[in-house]
Structure prediction request, 602 residues.
Amino acid sequence: MRLRRPVARKLTVLAAVSAVVSVGAAAPPTSTATDPVEKVPVAVGHGGAVASVDPDASAAGIEVLRKGGNAVDAAVATAAALGVTEPYSAGIGGGGYFVYYDAASRRVHTIDGRETAPLSADDTLFLENGTPVPFAEAVTSGLSVGTPGTPATWGTALRSWGSRPLARLLKPAERLARDGFTVDATFRAQTAANEARFRTFPATADLYLPGGRLPEVGSTLKNPDLARTYAELGRKGVGALYKGDIARDIVATVNKPPVDPASDYHARPGDLTTADLAAYRTKKQAPTKASYRGLDVYGMAPSSSGGTTVAEALNILERTDLSKASDVRYLHRLIEASRVSFADRGRWVGDPAFEDVPTKELLSQRYADSRGCLIKDDAVLTSPVAPGDPRRPAACSAGGTAAPTTYEGDSTTHLTVADKWGNVVSYTLTIEQTGGSGITVPGRGFLLNNELTDFSFTPASPAVHDPNLPGPGKRPRSSMSPTIVLDKHGRPVVALGSPGGATIITTVLQTLTGFLDRGLPLVDAIAAPRASQRNQTTTELEPGLWNSPLKGRLEAIGHGFRQNPEIGAVAGVQRLPNGTWLAAAETVRRGGGSAMVVHPTR
Prediction:
């Protein structure tokens, strides 16, 4: 649920970056609910930068950078604060993907911190008597909860590249949870959208419906249980969530969801065990890499489909000079490249521990060329487009049966951090649905994810193998696309990512091409109205394009559209000369984002 729609703009946005840089772009060392931090969408300066959706979270990251921490330290602090102020999008009950650029070695590393299915799960996880469980009932259940990966991601990142102890990095978030944060209109609207199911679970209602009512805009919301949980993780390490009292509390909550006795809702139990939590491991793995316009674009490899799908679409677009294309041709090519790459995503991408995923072939320019020749300037491909075969690319071929795009919740959040040494983190994390499963672990202050609903409940197409069916310990396919772009010398150009379910991929793709090809300042590439095509019969448009003459000109080619009030919410950083960073976030979506630097250039 989002509160405000993006402003209606022409595709080319002409606002100058300097017009929105503000003194408020640098956060005070400490912020409280009575001393709210100003929300500014773009900031330029030295010493490091943070971009996220929330000013308190960005301020937590800046606090760490100001005290000498590096980008990894600041990313963990920012993520922990988002678990307080954006609890319906992320938290220690969820998972995500962490992409890190190390300035000393000029290398990119990644951590797969995706949630996993219980070891008892199989491809009938969401079937009852051979029939799929209704999606809405699966979402709000213990059945949908995967083993959380976020705390383990923090532990892996800090052990590998961090410079500060976890306890110190959790202090800003612990303080924010204890003292409270100011409720804004977006938070209230998201709570209202979940009110009915939140009331089903007393621990959730007590926390997010104080006094039995929706929190008022401007009021202070405190979460002392989460403050105590963060303090415990600080003392004992992230392993305390996977073994011990917290782990046992999670398992008890999943296997017997604590429903209000007065409610007639049947919350299906899960089958998570303490062994599942104890067995959880993150995966450090090679990033995806695509060459685009002489730059190297790094992303997240499977289990996420973000890196391969963004890369394939960029490889398809490589053969078109988008800088000289008209707005209509640019959007047409963007939409069609997305359509084709999503066809291949649906057929080939799943958890590589269980599936034979042709990652290398999906990233190849040869394969992209074999698929890109399907695209014509005077016609539209009919969706769903059939996948190709990456291992046997044939010019303009589209064989086999198309796999429809499965639903993914559009919650999630993203943060991007850079430090004074030139290290960069692009980190997307989630609990899936807005509000996750709706189930709060009693006494612990955090919501559990419903990530397992990202699996296909039944095969997406009965005629072809579905790589995204559940399995024991399997990671569901994701669209999260944290991305870092390097120049030919191995130095950062831009880093960004977005929430938005499957629209994450198209959002990142459009923002990258807007910035790299169309010459938009980063904040304007982020603000530009979006289109999202995911191998479906119609393409989603935000109001800025829906109400534009471009829509009619695209329809004349054969495009069909449906309206989406808001697609994605990007946060990114750009490296400028002389050690200067530009941080940029949304101007309107999700109520606007928060960009900060340590030492602003005024």
In short: The two ends are 35 Å apart (CA to CA). Confidence is low (pLDDT under 50) at residues 1-24, 28-34.
